[in-house]
Design brief:
Helix content of chain B: under 10%
Largest sheet of chain A: 9 strands, mixed
Order of helices and strands of chain A: EHEHHEHEHHHHHEEEHEHEHHHHEE
Distance between the termini of chain B: 39 Å
Shape of chain A: globular
Strand content of chain A: 15-25%
Oligomer: heterodimer
Structural class of chain A: alpha/beta
Radius of gyration of chain B: 16 Å
Shape of chain B: globular
Number of helices of chain A: 15
Number of strands of chain B: 8
Bound molecules: zinc ion
Largest interface: A-B, 36 and 36 residues
CATH topology of the largest domain in chain A: Peroxisomal Thiolase, Chain A, domain 1
Radius of gyration of chain A: 19 Å
């Protein structure tokens, strides 16, 4: 396996882009990433795109070919990967594997979703495809309901409170104020969350990530090539993925996501790092409870301590382990197919010292955690600045 | 958009009516819905038909205030993960139950109900729901 690095990034703002189409979003992010990498389009050998439900959201499939065409990169091979909300993370991982294997030297990775062109009900149905339609969604479960079942189990086993979950949303909104790409750049209070009304008890409207349009792209290269073409590459030290049952009811435990635990264990083994070595993390807070589960399952806190940790500010910027400096899915926004790639971009910017007011001081190692559905897929990556 | 595609409905009639699953005789694990391979034993597994018990208890629950297509008129409604007496877990709606009795650990029993009214032109989806007993 060869060492692989990120050499360029491009991101659209996240939000409701009524004036821009799916193809414009991915072209905007992709062109920025190629320019940022300082390579020419002709040097890119393949494209890996992530999109979850473009067929249901905009009636368009065959996204691989669409991306290549829109970026003017025909005839190189281009594929679209789908793993629900982890589509972007899985696209990045497969691109990483293609470069690590020696097959390609320079590859483009994109993630995109255009979610606001259908009604909220139809968006909910499209997102429901991330769960087990036949046995769970069909029975009346919604996505918030699945995470609510995890939240209640965690509350009853460890005493986690609704206020502690609210503290995740409050922190992430605060971080998003300093992220010009974020959907919600305004602070909220614990009281705002507590008063926002149940969607699926104990989860309330402000515990949930929003419906978002957006695209993200990175260019990755073998680290040997990266050193020649890029001033400041960021190495992907590990990219690991694990699977679990699609149905939530079939999981071994309702207070952890086993796929996260398996993926991060492999990532720590591959890098020789421990949780305490990680300086910041972007985790999959599609619902606030999932950030609490993630900070435990990734090893930052003991099982059951995640709620207290966020309440005490341990995951805030300047805390023990800053989590979701970008604002996370909650406040930066969650265009599902783009999310995994956007997380990698936050890590790339943090490790290059380019995160401006949300910069983590002296960050050496960063981690990203992207989940598909209610935990049937998890992708964990670890990064550091490439040493020359 | 519909949540109950007709082929999905008729193909699943028997299991949704009777909770028909199966069991691996090698390791003793029961499965619902029935599986084609035992994940514990794979090639060494021996799967035989088994009906699930009608009773179980609530492992976790939520009250849905926003329902998907076909469930809009039922909100708020309860959804729970239920552990049946043979340790099999499934997700189902709770019906005909006193709200104050909806708690983790509460005993429940299978009932037969219309699942939703998503697709007015297609077949009506029937299946299992659970109610609190005792
Ligand atoms: Zn077996």
């Amino acid at each position: 396996m060869r060492s692989v690095s990120i050499i360029g990034a491009g991101l659209t703002t996240f939000g409701e882009h009524w004036e821009k189409s799916f193809r414009e979003l991915i072209a905007e992010a992709g062109i920025q990433a190629i320019q940022d990498a300082g390579v020419s389009g002709g040097q890119i050998e393949a494209i890996y795109g992530g999109a979850m439900a473009s067929g249901r959201f905009i009636g368009q499939e065959h996204i691989g070919a669409l991306i290549a065409d829109q970026l003017g990169l025909n005839p190189i091979p281009s594929v679209r990967l789908e793993a629900a909300c982890a589509s972007g993370g899985v696209a990045l991982r497969n691109a990483y594997l293609a470069v690590a294997s020696g097959m390609y030297d320079i590859v483009a990775v994109g993630g995109v979703e255009k979610m606001t062109e259908v009604s909220t009900e139809d968006a909910g149905f499209a997102l429901g495809g991330a769960g087990d339609q036949e046995t769970e969604l069909f029975m009346g479960a919604t996505f918030p309901a699945l995470y609510a079942l995890l939240a209640r189990a965690h509350m009853e086993e460890f005493g986690t409170t609704e206020e502690q979950m609210a503290a995740v949303a409050v922190k992430n909104h605060k971080n998003a104020v300093n992220n010009p790409f974020a959907q919600y750049r305004r602070e909220i209070t614990i009281e705002d969350v507590m008063k926002s009304g149940y969607v699926a008890s104990p989860l309330k409207l402000l515990d949930c990530s929003p419906i978002t349009d957006g695209a993200a792209a990175v260019i990755i290269a073998s680290s040997d090539v990266a050193k020649k073409v890029c001033e400041n590459p960021v190495e992907i030290l590990a990219s690991e993925q694990a699977s679990d049952s699609l149905a939530l009811s079939k999981r071994k435990s309702l207070t952890e996501l086993d796929a996260t635990k398996v993926a991060v264990k492999q990532a720590y083994e591959r890098t020789g790092l421990k949780a305490k070595d990680i300086d910041f993390a972007e985790v999959h807070d599609c619902f606030t409870i999932n950030e609490i589960l993630a900070t435990e399952d990734l090893g930052f806190f003991k099982k059951g301590e995640g709620g207290k940790a966020v309440e005490k500010g341990k995951t805030a910027l300047g805390g023990e382990i800053p989590v979701n400096t970008s604002g996370g899915l909650k406040a930066k926004g969650h265009p599902v197919g783009a999310t995994g790639v956007a997380q990698a971009i936050e890590a790339y910017w943090q490790l290059r010292g380019a995160a401006d007011k949300r910069q983590v001081k002296d960050a050496e190692y960063g981690l990203t955690h992207n989940v598909g559905g209610s935990g049937a897929t998890a992708v964990v990556n670890i990064y550091r600045r490439l040493e020359k | 958009m519909t949540t109950g595609f007709p082929p999905l409905l008729w193909r699943r009639f028997p299991e949704r009516y009777t909770l028909a699953g199966n069991k691996c005789e090698t390791c003793g694990t029961s499965y619902f819905p029935a599986r084609k391979v035992c994940p514990n034993c794979r090639r060494r597994g021996k799967l035989v038909d088994e009906s699930m018990p009608r009773k179980g208890k609530i492992v976790s629950w939520t009250q849905c205030f926003v329902g998907p297509t076909g469930f809009e008129h039922e909100t708020p409604y309860f959804v729970a993960i239920i552990e049946l007496e043979n340790k099999v877990r499934l997700l189902a709606q709770l019906v005909d139950s006193d709200e104050k009795k909806v708690k983790t650990g509460a005993c429940v029993e299978k009932v037969f109900r219309k699942i939703n009214d998503a697709d007015k032109s297609g077949p009506i989806a029937y299946g299992y729901k659970f109610k609190i007993v005792g």
